[in-house]
């Protein structure tokens, strides 16, 4: 099984990673400072593209490892440029190799998307993945404790690729983190539009708590509001296979365990799984067995094997990783899309293969000997032979039919000459 070790040099970027949805929240989280000890290598910014415009917006800026907030002139793009998104994805992969920040990037994407309310039609009031999590007012929500670190990691990539929206960047980072940790390929689409200012951020309280009085009811209230069902709730919970909970941020978990004391990244916290940077179905196995006191089990985790409807899927995923991967990929993509506004409206994929070249339709008039075109009689004979082999004007043969005919004629001529001699 894969093992993970901390960066070899002090210059390598590190980050403290935390658990994912549902969020562990407490009064401790409300006192989160918007400074952190996370350091990262700066990436060079690229020139702005002519079709993007500048807008006054309140946003976070990074200075000497500290994130501060001020009204600044910042490039806002109307929608993402596919080629820049592809390049950003490669930079995210490199970031993951040096920071081991898979869990917090998944959480960033989820928390930007997880504010969706299907009962509100108007965008952006309905929430969803719209880039609002970059603003101080939303970063200060108790459920988002520590996500300032994720923003600090992604901000240089955003500045490098001006033709990428925050909404797309957060979702791209989340899906890429899952895939790079060994998880399934997420069928993502892009083209999300950003909100323009902090006044468009959703109100606090739309994300799940980790220890509500009635965990099953609470999970359903939150996720049903987003249009998700029991299967999707359980599948998404499986992303807790990545990450750790830190008591100084959330009030949940141990300060350190034998699995987290040496990192990678900043040491400490309590993980749900032994290999907390590997995406697999071990979360369901470990929650079911509950044999290791060093592994975290929140009330919202335990209920997956207590509630009859949840248990059906949790048992299945503990036994069948392929089934978990399939359902997780679909649920992750759905969560990333609901509530978002896309331009173009249908969005676009970064992984669409170019359509295969179609064989040329049969056009008998194209064939001629030298500069002299075939007679109509000869065209009809060729067409009859072509159709005899299963072709038609609207059903091209996969091989070069005319070349085959020429080969057959040549062979017949050669055989005839041998016979005559």
From TrEMBL:
Q: Where in the cell is it found?
A: Plastid, Chloroplast
**Can you tell me where the transmembrane regions are?**
401-420
Q: Where is the composition biased (Basic and acidic residues)?
A: 245-261
Name what cofactor the protein needs.
heme b
Which residue intervals make up region (Disordered)? Answer: 244-267
Q: Which domain of life is it from?
A: Eukaryota
Instruction: Output the InterPro entries linked to this UniProt entry.
Output: Ccp1-like, Haem_peroxidase, Haem_peroxidase_sf, Peroxidase_I, Peroxidases_heam-ligand_BS
Note the CDD domains from the entry: ascorbate_peroxidase
Q: Where is the Plant heme peroxidase family profile domain?
A: 105-352
- Signal sequence, start to end: none
Q: What is its main location?
A: plastid
Annotated Gene3D superfamilies: 1.10.520.10, Peroxidase, domain 2 (1.10.420.10)
| Catalyzed reactions per annotation | 2 a phenolic donor + H2O2 = 2 a phenolic radical donor + 2 H2O; L-ascorbate + H2O2 = L-dehydroascorbate + 2 H2O
Q: Which GO terms describe its cellular component?
A: chloroplast
Which GO BP terms, alphabetically?
cellular response to oxidative stress; hydrogen peroxide catabolic process; response to reactive oxygen species
GO MF annotations, alphabetized: heme binding; L-ascorbate peroxidase activity; lactoperoxidase activity; metal ion binding
The protein's UniProt keywords, in alphabetical order, are: Calcium, Chloroplast, Heme, Hydrogen peroxide, Iron, Membrane, Metal-binding, Oxidoreductase, Peroxidase, Plastid, Potassium, Transit peptide, Transmembrane, Transmembrane helix
Instruction: Provide the function of this protein.
Output: Plays a key role in hydrogen peroxide removal.
**Which family does the UniProt entry place this protein in?**
Belongs to the peroxidase family. Ascorbate peroxidase subfamily.
* Protein name as catalogued: Probable L-ascorbate peroxidase 6, chloroplastic isoform X1
Lineage, highest ranks first:
Eukaryota, Viridiplantae, Streptophyta, Embryophyta, Tracheophyta
């Amino acid at each position: 099984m894969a093992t993970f070790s901390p960066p070899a040099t002090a210059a390598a970027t590190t980050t403290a990673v935390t658990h994912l949805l549902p969020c562990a929240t407490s009064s401790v989280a409300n006192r989160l400072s918007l400074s952190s000890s996370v350091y990262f290598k700066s990436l060079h910014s690229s020139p702005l593209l002519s079709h993007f415009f500048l807008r006054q917006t309140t946003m976070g800026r990074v200075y000497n490892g500290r994130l501060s907030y001020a009204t600044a002139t910042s490039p806002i793009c109307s929608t993402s440029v596919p080629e820049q998104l592809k390049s950003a994805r490669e930079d995210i992969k490199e970031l993951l190799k040096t920071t081991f920040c898979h869990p917090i990037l998944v959480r960033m994407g989820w928390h930007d998307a997880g504010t969706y309310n299907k009962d509100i039609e108007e965008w952006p009031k309905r929430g969803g993945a719209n880039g609002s999590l970059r603003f101080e007012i939303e970063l200060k929500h108790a459920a988002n404790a520590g996500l300032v670190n994720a923003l600090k990691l992604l901000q240089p990539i955003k500045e490098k690729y001006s033709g990428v929206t925050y909404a797309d960047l957060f979702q791209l980072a989340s899906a890429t983190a899952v895939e790079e940790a060994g998880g399934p390929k997420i069928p993502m689409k892009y083209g999300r539009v950003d909100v323009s200012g902090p006044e468009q951020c959703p109100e606090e309280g739309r994300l799940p708590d980790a220890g509500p009085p009635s965990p099953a009811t609470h999970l359903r209230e939150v996720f049903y509001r987003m249009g998700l069902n029991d299967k999707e709730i359980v599948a998404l919970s499986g992303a807790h296979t990545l990450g750790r909970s830190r008591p100084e941020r959330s009030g949940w978990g141990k300060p350190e365990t034998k699995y987290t004391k040496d990192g990678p990244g900043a040491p400490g916290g309590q993980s749900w799984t032994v290999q907390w940077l590997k995406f697999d179905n071990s979360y369901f196995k470990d929650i079911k067995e509950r044999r290791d006191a060093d592994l975290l089990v929140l009330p919202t985790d335990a209920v997956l094997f207590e509630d009859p409807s949840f248990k059906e899927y949790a048992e299945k995923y503990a036994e069948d990783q392929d089934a978990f991967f399939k359902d997780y990929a679909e649920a992750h993509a759905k969560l990333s899309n609901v509530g978002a506004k896309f331009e173009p409206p249908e969005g676009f994929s970064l992984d669409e293969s170019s359509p295969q070249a179609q064989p040329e339709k049969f056009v008998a008039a194209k064939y001629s000997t030298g500069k002299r075109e075939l007679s109509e009689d000869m065209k009809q004979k060729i067409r009859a032979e072509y159709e005899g082999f299963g072709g038609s004007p609207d059903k091209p043969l996969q091989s070069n039919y005319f070349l085959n005919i020429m080969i057959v004629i040549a062979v017949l001529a050669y055989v005839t000459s041998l016979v005559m001699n």
